[in-house]
Every structure is written in C-alpha cells, then in structure tokens.
Amino acid sequence: MKQHGMNADFIHLHVIILLLFIFVVLSLTSSTMIFLEWQLKHEPHKLSLRLTLPLYLSIYLSIFLMMQVLQASSSSPHLFIKTPSPLTTTTWGLAPSMSGVKSSSPLFSIHFSQKSQTSIWKSHKSAIFSFVAPPRAASVEVGSSSVSTGTAEDDVLKALSQIIDPDFGTDIVTCGFVKDLQIDKALGEVSFRLELTTPACPIKDVFEQQANEVVAMLPWVKNVKVAMSAQPAKPLFSEQLPAGLQTISNIIAVSSCKGGVGKSTIAVNLAYTLADMGARVGIFDADVYGPSLPTMVSPENRLLEMNAEKRTIIPTEYMGVKLVSFGFAGQGRAIMRGPMVSGVINQLLTTTEWGELDYLVIDMPPGTGDIQLTLCQIVPLTAAVIVTTPQKLSFIDVAKGVRMFSKLKVPCVAVVENMCHFDADGKRYYPFGRGSGSQVVQQFGIPHLFDLPIRPTLSASGDSGMPEVVADPQGEVSKIFQNLGVCVVQQCAKIRQQVSTAVTYDKSMKAIRVKVPNSDEEFFLHPATVRRNDRSAQSVDEWTGEQKLQYTDVPEDIEPEEIRPMGNYAVSITWPDGFSQIAPYDQLQTMERLVDYLLPTIQE
Ligand SMILES: Nc1ncnc2c1ncn2[C@@H]1O[C@H](COP(=O)(O)OP(=O)(O)OP(=O)(O)O)[C@@H](O)[C@H]1O
After folding, report:
1. Least confident of 51-60, 155-164, 228-237
2. What is the rounded distance in angstroms from the CA atom of residue 461 to the CA atom of residue 477?
3. H/E segment holding residue 587
4. What ipTM was estimated for this complex?
5. Ligand 1: does its nearest atom lie under 6 Å from the Cβ of 295?
6. Is the shortest distance between the CB of 264 and ligand 1 below 6 Å?
7. In 24-177, which ranges are E strands?
C-alpha cells in the first residue's frame, strides 16, 4: 500500500517542468508588461533599452534553462524528485527509478548513487535540487503477482555472494558456482544449483548449508532448494592430448626416489580417500618392473580387457576405483629396456578408456631417470606428492625428485614422511631419526608435510588386497589420509585456477597480462611483440636460425583470439590468421615488457 500511495502523488517530471516553465515565462512577461506600461505612462522620457534588456534577457535565460532541464530529464526518465524544504515531505515520483543512472545535458548532470540511493542534480558542481532514487523494490507492483525477476535475482545473488570460497578467496557468485537460478517471488520459492570445481570439495556441505541459510534470510523467501553438483571432468590443458586422457580433470603423481618407502601404499590409500570424498578416481600403476597394485586391491576381474575394435584397454575396477597396472596385463614380470618400458607405460596409460575421472593417481616407478622423465612429459600432471622416509639420506633423494618436477613445472603439493615413528610400551620411537621431511618442506617451499606412522595394520591391509582407508575408515591412518586428500583437492583446485588465469588478454589495455606464479607480480606484453617472438619452425628456420617471420609481417594492432594453458609450462595463443603459437612461460618472461607509463597510452 505504501508504494501504491506514493505512486498516486507522482506527477511526471515533464509536466512539472512544463508548468514551471509556463509559470516563469508568464510571470516574467506580465511583470515586464506592467513595468513598460508604468514607464510609458509616468516616465516615457526614461524608457530605454538599457532598462528593458535585463528583463528580456532573464526571460530568454529561463527558457534556456528549462530546455536544459528537459533535455537532462528526458535522457533519464527513471527519476524521482524530492524538492528541498518546505516541500521535502512530498516526494514526486516521476517514473520508475534506476539507481546508477547518469544523465546529462550540456549544463546539468544527474547522478544516482547506488549505495545511498540518493542522487544529486548538479549545476556547475553546485547542488541545486536533491533527487532521491527510491529503493529498487519500488518497481514491484502491489496487488500484482508479477515479479521483477531482476530485482529478486539480485537479492539472491547478493545474499549468496556473502559466501567466500576459502581456496580462491572469492565469493561463490564470482567463482561462477551458481547455476540454474529459478525464482518465484510470489510464492517465495528459490531454487539453484551450486556447481563446484570438484565433487570431492571438502566443504561442499558447508557451502550447501550456508547457501540455504543466507537465501532463507531474505524477507520474501519461504522455500529454498539447493542442488549440489560438480563441473564435468575436463583437463585444464589444451586438447592436444591422447584420447585416453581427455576426460580426466587432475592427474596426481605419487613419487619417491627410492623403492620400498611406501609410495604404492600412499598412492592407493590416497586414491580410495579421494573416492570416499565423492570423486571419480583411477589408479595407474606405472611400475612395470615391480607392480604393487595387484596385491593391494582385489578386483573381481584381474585381467585387463581389450576393445579389439577401438584398440583400447578397459580398466578393471575395485570398489568404484578404476585400475590399470602391468600386473593386470597377464604378462608376468617384465624384462625390458628403458625405452621399451616407456613405450609400454605410454600405451597402457593413453589407450585406456578411463572415462570421466576427477583424479587419476599415478603410482610412479621409483627414481628420477629417463622412464620417470618421459612419463612426466607424456602426461599433463597437475601436481605431485613426494613420499620419503625420515632418514637423512632420503633428503638427498627427495631433493632430486623435487628438482625433476620443478624442471617440468609440476608443483609438488605435499611431502609424506612415511614410517616416521611407532608407539610401543606407551612410548613413541623414531627408528629412522627425525627431521628429513621438514627439511624438504623448508628448503623447497612445499606447503604441506604429513607424517605417517609405522602401523602393522597398514602393512597387513596392503597384503590383504583391501586398502587401510577402506578397511578402517575411522582409524588414525584414515584420518591422516583424509587430511592428505583435502590438501590434494584444494591444491589442485588452486593450481587449475592459477594456470587458467596465468596468461590472459586484457582487451581494454590491448595487452597480454602475465601473472608470475606464486606471487602478486604481473607484467604486460604487447601482442605484436609476443607474435613476433614466436620461435616455431614457421617463424624461424630450424637449421639455419634465419628469421622467416619479418617484423612488418605482424600488424602493430594484432590481437589474440584465444589464450589457453598448455601444461604447466606454456600457453597456446591463437591469432586471427589461424596460427597457433606455443609460448612457454619462460619465454614470455624474457620478452620486452610494456612499462607502466605506456599503459595509459595503450588504454587510449
Ligand atoms: N607406514 C607403514 N607402516 C607399515 N608398513 C608400511 C608402511 N608403509 C609401507 N609399508 C609396507 O612397506 C612395504 C613397501 O611399501 P610400498 O610397496 O608401498 O613401497 P613402494 O615405495 O611403493 O615400493 P616399490 O617402489 O618397491 O613399489 C609394503 O609391504 C607396505 O605394506
């Protein structure tokens, strides 16, 4: 009723201005006439242009001012006017309001402030009248079931934007998680879906609860329905991947530099933990010489099947996790040379029909030799987990592993220090000493260290074919793996976000923006410079080093059409002529940068 009552008092702005205009013109004309008549009668000798001119001028000026006001108001019909005292209590609504609207004539400008819902009519920077934009709800008609969906949608999105994703440090609306928003304001019903980056999101229940709560707090909301889902499995990197890997979101390497430190135990238990968190998971046992997977799990089908038509491998499965190992290939233990091993691993991994996976855990062969290096180059690894034991000697081996991943630009997200202690007779023993893991963390800046104690159950479950986290999901070991699982999920999500935003094109600046990893630093490159620095065979002769692409071949105003990450080390840039340039991050770092003072010029 309040809104309705207000509407009854409202008169269109143009009518008021027209009335004011007629009033001013009439009063000025009549006063001029009266004055001229009086002078003609009493002082005809004093009648001069000097006296009458100001009056005529004031008439013309008022006409001009009115025209300006009409022009300003017509460019913003969404206006409410609140006149100054003594009429401040009367608000004339002139048309539905829209905050943030700015309209102007050559002399006046009208601004609407979204925060205060107050706008100021300015003339030469001095306020003449104060305009008040009504609250946005004013657009809802009372007594009608029709709803301004935009407004209700804004309410809901504003409420949801209070929920911050702790991994990205951004609200869930900005992250693009809110999908399929449906609102029936008349019935007070709101439904939407939260599409998270991974089904294993450790705080998905918190998101769901918070989303329910914040929306239910809106005064008009009676019923909230929140559905939870995850983005489809999709690799972050370009589609130049073997077919078998094109539907896997994250590939995690579990690696150690020595055998027997518990790498397979950790890979398998990590995989089943991720599956327990709600993710679709696979394990690839890349150890051809001594595959451990067949003893650690008990799939019904212990032989991999082939799809003869498609020439692909069908993985076997145990408790919902897809498994591929040379040990399931029915070949017995292999005696092969390095390149042959690499070929077998490559074939097993890339020709497997993995289907959609959120995480593929790769149990790497121990060491940092050619086999490991080749594997890391074939597979677009998202992250690596390093397994070590507490001996001082292990540190040297681990350092080798970290360096290998660092060269390949694969982030090491966690170190697991296995067999760090055991408890007996009420005491804790450290049979291999202490401190090697924390030294790795400190020296290489790896953010997370997990201590895994010696537990006979862990060994027994490994031999029994049922991973410990499945056999005893509430036990102490399972808790450690749950923490490791959360760490892996969060770090992968962060890495994906960082990589996908590491190199972008800023259209307004006409510059390629490069974010330096693990820092706030960023720099800008001129697109033409990036294109001219292409080192591919199309631009530079491979044999002679002669420059084929000439400086003038690249237009100064060239703009990239698309920029996509390629592994953790490069981006693929598509140019308007269809050329796809692979630009490694290291190369981008060496190019001539656009300095700050040039950027405003670019903006122009
Ligand atoms: N924390 C632990 N407590 C008790 N036993 C463990 C622990 N970690 C691993 N083991 C046992 O140690 C043995 C070696 O573990 P695992 O096979 O996982 O090591 P690995 O590094 O993968 O070895 P390889 O490189 O030879 O495959 C297994 O029998 C396993 O059950």
Report:
1. 51-60
2. 12
3. helix 585-590
4. 0.98
5. no
6. yes
7. 80-82, 91-93, 102-104, 108-112, 118-123, 126-132, 164-165, 170-171
Rounded to whole angstroms, the Cα distance separating 135 from 157 reads 17
CA distance 2 to 264: 70
> Which pLDDT does position 11 carry in this prediction?
46
Cβ atoms 585, 516 nearer than 8 A: no
Whole-number Å distance, alpha carbon 103 to ligand 1 midpoint, is: 73
According to DSSP, the β-strands at 383-388 and 248-255 are parallel
CA 496 to chain centre: 9
What is the distance of C-alpha 182 from the center of its chain? 23
Name the residue at shortest CA distance from atom 25 of ligand 1.
259
Taking alpha carbons only, the member of 382, 399, 599 closest to residue 497 is 382
pLDDT single digits (tens) 281-301? 999 998 887 889 999 999 999
- Token pair 């963390």 is found at 441
β 281-285/321-325 pair status: parallel
Which residue CA neighbors atom 31 of ligand 1 most closely? 459
- Is the beta carbon of 567 within 6 A of some atom in ligand 1? no
Ligand 1 centre distance from Cα of residue 254 (Å): 13
Residue closest to 209 by CA, chosen among 174, 166, 160: 160
Is the CB of residue 73 below 6 angstroms from any atom belonging to ligand 1?
no
Kindly write down the DSSP assignment for every residue of 300-333, as one continuous string: S--S-EEETTTTEEEPEEETTEEEEEGGGTT--S
Least confident of 29-43, 107-121, 398-412, 435-449: 107-121
- SS3 breakdown of the chain: % helix, strand, coil, rounded to 5? 40, 25, 40
CA angle in degrees (0–180, nearest 5) for 423-427-428: 55
Beta strands in 278-429, from DSSP E residues, in sequence order? 281-285, 305-307, 312-314, 316-318, 321-325, 357-363, 383-388, 412-418, 422-424, 427-429
Measuring CA to CA, which residue among 498, 500, 365, 389 is closest to residue 437?
A: 389
Ligand 1 midpoint to CA 244 (Å)? 29
Mean pLDDT of 66-91: 41
CA 33 to ligand 1 center in whole angstroms:
109
Length of the chain, in residues: 604
Residues 306-324 pLDDT 10s:
888 888 899 999 999 999 9
Q: How far apart are CA 438 and CA 415, in angstroms?
A: 9
Instruction: Dig out the tokens for 197 from the structure.
Output: 């980056």
7-16, 26-35, 242-251: lowest mean pLDDT where? 7-16
Give the Cα separation of 273 and 473 in Å (integer). 9
Atom of ligand 1 lying closest to residue 363 CA: 22
Residue with CA nearest ligand 1 atom 11:
459
Read off the pLDDT of residues 188-209 as tens digits, 9 standing for 90 and up: 999 999 999 899 998 999 999 9
If we measure between CA atoms, which residue out of 293, 463, 451 comes closest to residue 361? 293
